[in-house]
Amino acid sequence: MITTNRLNITTRVATDANVLINFIHLHQLELLDRLETHGFIVPQRVIEEVTWDVQAEALSVAFQKGHLHPCDLDDDETEDLYNGLCALVEPGEAACIAIAYVRGHAIATDEKGDAERIATELVGKARLLRTESILSRCIHAGLITVAEADAFKATLATKRYAMKFASFADLEAA
């Protein structure tokens, strides 16, 4: 069961490890909680994929502080879809896609290839979030500035996550 004290969540987001790790690199998992219209949930299969000690500890702290909420495949329909998807994508991605599809949630993943294609087909492009779209939503919510988002972009580039635009100012202008 997912609990939160906020009443204004309009979008639940099944969150994959790659997005979580990007926010861990930025020391900004708390930012996900501050985006008040979104509730970021993390399937158990994703938690199991975060194996580096420092990252697992950051994730554990985020759960303890209520910045993120663990969830699981707690019904037959979600479990059945998950099992079918595991033949096509990694378990964490399969769990996020299954939960998002069955429960009508959004999905946060930076995966490409089959995972992106399947998520788009089942969940829809409008409910597919990436690290950069989450940061953009944070800018719109007044939680960070464009300059801060650009600094985050530069940090992630050093961690092998390159965004294909020069500045968040370019996205905001579009």
Please describe what this structure looks like.
The N terminus is likely disordered. Helix 5 crosses helix 6 and helix 6 runs parallel beside helix 7. About 55% of the residues lie in helices and about 10% in strands. The chain is globular and about 45 Å long. The chain has a five-stranded parallel beta sheet with strand order 3-2-1-4-5. With about 170 residues, the protein is α/β, with parallel strands linked by helices. The protein contains ten helices and five strands.
Question: How would you summarize the topology of this molecule?
Answer:
Layout: E1 11-15, H1 17-25, H2 29-34, E2 38-43, H3 44-49, H4 53-64, E3 69-71, H5 76-85, H6 91-103, E4 106-108, H7 113-123, E5 128-129, H8 131-140, H9 146-157, H10 168-173
Parallel strand pairs: 1-2, 1-4, 2-3, 4-5
Helix pairs in contact: 5-6, 6-7
Helical element count?
A: 10
What's the helix-strand series?
EHHEHHEHHEHEHHH
Low-pLDDT sequence parts: 1-7
Envelope shape: globular
Q: What is the overall pLDDT average? A: 94
End-to-end distance: 39 Å
Rounded Rg: 15 Å
Strand order of the largest sheet: 3-2-1-4-5
How many β-strand stretches? Answer: 5
Instruction: Provide the β-strand percentage band.
Output: 5-15%
Largest sheet: 5 strands, parallel
Secondary structure: helix percent: 40-55%
Secondary structure category: alpha/beta
